[in-house]
Amino acid sequence: MFCAKFKLLFCLAFLAGCQSNEVNFGGPEDRHESSQVTSSIAKSSDTGNGSSESPDDGNAQVAGLASSGSETVSKIVIGNYRPPKAGTVFYWKNNWNSLPPKLVQRVSAQDVEFAGKKAIAMESIEETGNSTTAFYDVTTSNMLGHKDKNGKPVLVFSKVEERLRFPMKPGDQWVTNWKTKDYSTGKTTSGGGIVKVVGPEKLKVAGNMLKTMKIQLPVPKNTGRGMKHFIWYSPKFGIVVREQVANGTFVWLKQLEKVKLPG
Asked: Looking at the 3D structure of the chain, how many domains does it have?
């Protein structure tokens, strides 16, 4: 999440703060223990065709959800947030015309301070050499803001956009009201609306089935008729691995392409 100047950064803050169609995962040694998940289908062994992923991969209780009945799905609960490990590198693809088609983001620290809160720091680097560091709340993964390569605040959420809330289960709803200040222009922007947890969903990526929770976010009134905004959160990797804004004609998609785990 970074910009060719600060317009690009704000665009990312709105759409990824408001994530190729393949995701390549490493071997069994490249596993990140996910957040605690509890459910009545903890022993599911459906990992998808060609998957090398262990059924007990830290969010195994979110397996087999597409074929599970509504009664079982309603019992799915992601208990708490666990951030990705420092040194993890995420590679993204997207088709948003104001963003580079390839994005790279590295977790540089798990416990730093940003705007008086404990945060996860993720450094983003463009092919041009431009870079910023994004900061996310260490307990929820919600974005707190950005600093430039010199360590100066660029964008700060004075009111955080609560895209994720833990514990989380299908059917959950809450109201989010967010407010940001762009320090490059002095401009303040705000928004909000109702966030809805749609339910668990599998994403087939590079022969593996990645288990996620699908969430619908509110969209501003001026985005056009029929526009819908969804994110897919992966408890295994501790991030939103897919983000989509679409209305049936226009589709903006940012999705995780590859993960490189530390060690």
From this structure: 1
Q: Read off the amino acid at residue 95.
A: N
Q: Is residue 1 domain-resident? A: no
Angstrom distances, CA of residue 55 to CA of 86, 156, 188, 199: 25, 39, 46, 20
- Is the pTM of the predicted complex or chain greater than 0.85? no
Say how many CA atoms lie within 13 Å of 71 toward its Cβ.
0
Owning domain of residue 153: 6-260
| Residuewise pLDDT in 10s, the chain (263 residues) | 333 333 344 344 444 344 333 333 333 333 343 333 333 222 222 333 333 333 333 333 443 343 334 445 556 899 999 999 999 999 999 897 777 788 899 999 999 999 999 999 999 876 556 678 999 999 999 999 999 988 999 999 999 999 999 999 999 999 999 999 999 899 999 999 999 999 999 987 645 678 999 999 999 877 777 899 999 999 989 999 999 999 988 899 999 998 999 98
Greatest Cα pair distance in the chain: 53
Q: Is residue 27 part of a domain?
A: yes
Instruction: Look up the CATH number of the domain holding residue 208.
Output: 2.40.360
Dist CA 24 CA 259 (whole Å): 7
Cα–Cα dist 207/1, whole Å: 27
